[in-house]
Design brief:
Length: about 180
């Protein structure tokens, strides 16, 4: 059964113990009005109308959890050209694998940070997953930095024709 809940301040913790009991955790999480205000401030946009995450967390093996979710958001942003408000709709499927680690493994610090093909698909957790973090992270990455209203363009026309001399023509005058 899916759990339809409203979350506040992007916090919805799912513990490993809960996942081990249920094996598959289905959820529908909608952001509260307070959370939408925090999101709008975080993204530096006019308003966040809605934000939600729906999907499942499934215990694949003793050491791996798989997240399959759809994230949806409706944001009001200023057009980067006209500054008029425009609506940005985000729909993104998120597929992630969480590896279960231990406190012992997390305490050792590496001097070298290694990036490879699996680095982007595999997150290390200890005893819980915050689905609110996944929601805000995905919306932040999917929000356009410079949204543009359909049909908006910048028409730059010079106010007057200015005859600009090249730097070399000025040098030739010095020779005279």
């Amino acid at each position: 059964m899916k759990k339809n809940q409203e979350i506040d301040n992007f916090v919805h913790i799912v513990s490993l113990e809960q996942l081990r009991r249920e094996i598959e955790y289905e959820f529908i999480l909608n952001c509260s009005n307070n959370g939408l205000s925090v999101l709008a401030e975080h993204l530096n946009i006019i308003e966040a109308k809605k934000a939600s995450i729906e999907g499942t967390l499934k215990l694949q093996t003793e050491k791996q959890i798989f997240l399959n979710a759809i994230i949806k958001a409706k944001l009001i942003q200023p057009c980067s050209l006209t500054l008029e408000p425009i609506v940005t709709n985000i729909t993104k499927q998120v597929l992630r694998t969480f590896s279960i680690g231990s406190n012992r493994n997390m305490e050792t610090k590496k001097n070298v940070f290694e990036l490879n093909e699996n680095s982007f698909d595999n997150d290390m957790i200890i005893d819980e997953i915050n689905l609110g973090d996944v929601l805000i992270e995905t919306i932040t990455l999917e929000t356009p930095d410079y949204p543009k209203k359909s049909g908006a363009s910048m028409n730059l026309t010079p106010k007057e024709d200015i005859n600009v001399e090249s730097p070399f023509s000025i040098l030739s005058k010095l020779k005279e």
